[in-house]
Amino acid sequence: MTNPDTVGLLSGPEGRRARNPSSRRPYLPRTVGFAGISAAMVAILVAAGAPTPLLPIYQRNWGLAPWELTLAFGVYAIALLIAILVIGSLSDHVGRRPLMIAALAVELAAMLVFLFAPSIGWLIAARIVQGVATGAASSSLSAAVVELAPERHKKLGALMTSMAPLAGLGIGALFAGLLAQFVSDPAFTVWLVLVVVMAAGTVFTVFTPETSSRKPGALASLVPRVSVPPQVRAFFASTMPVVISAFMTMALFLGLVPIVMGAVFGAGTPLVGALVAFVTFGVGTVVSAVTTGVRPHHLRLLGASATTLGALEFIVSVRAEALPFLWAAAVLGGAGLGASFSGITRGLVPEVEAHERAGLFTAIYLVGYLAMGVPAIIAGQFAGAVGVTSMATGFGIVIAVVAMVGVVVTGTRTARRRKAHAA
Fold it and tell me: Can you give the pTM of this predicted structure?
């Protein structure tokens, strides 16, 4: 998820100076920069999705317990959240390019730790570093993509930032799953490829033109600001069940399904779990792209409904040990993700002033990434006590209940608004 508050366009003399930096360094054309930074943004998210099919391999090679795998997943979400809270708006003060270079360099360091990780402790450390890098990159890369987009196609930049998160996670899972299927040492190969990609991205960013001028207040911007403007507090509260169930669905297909595939379905290859994740996030990307004309409250209702049905299908698949139901859960869950994210952002953004968006989206991310990381860690602890089947069933029940609350709350709010307008 990117920070929409940072996706702003510069204009006037200040913008022209930012787009025409000093000639002391040969900068790439803006169109080339747009393509390269878009690729870097997708690559960061591909790397975030890559561990999904590799988790069963680590579990088999190192004899890991389920809670160790879910811990490795959960700490990523928490580290990402902390990075967004602390440095999410830093690029507004120091410029896009310095933060992009730093974020990609930190991501490169994470890929190197993954590459040579000898134990679960190092794997967890790599996930923490990766979470920090992804959080640092989310605002600066998304802002730069929009600002570097060709003047005649500014919507292309906004489309990239909205579609990249879900698409990147799905592509990352598929990429790692295919390598796991066809190479002898998939973990090493996956991270080696990503080391090369991140190194290239870091070098490329050095020669990308700056799109934002510096301004004072960099240190002050490091203080987390979580605020919900008074005019949207009731609205914000009504979206929380949708936010929580959507992020828990992401945790389910990225962090728990790989464990379920082996323990419940006896899948002998990580490719199946990777394909399930790819379907989930691929469907989410498509739904997000094709529903731009649907009203936000309808999208939230659709998203919460699809998430509920997807969670129920997942429960049935686990209890019946039937893979067809898991595929159905992936499709429905993905549709719920795409519709929910679009409905939440498109519904909230027009209701607040520009200067209020940073605090608002920080509040959304605070709830969302906690819902993504903490339940996954807790679920891993329960797996050892009650078994993977019972743990997965319980996780699905929680998602279904929370999403159903979202359906009821969204439907009630919509009905009240219709009555108010009719009166």
Answer: 0.85
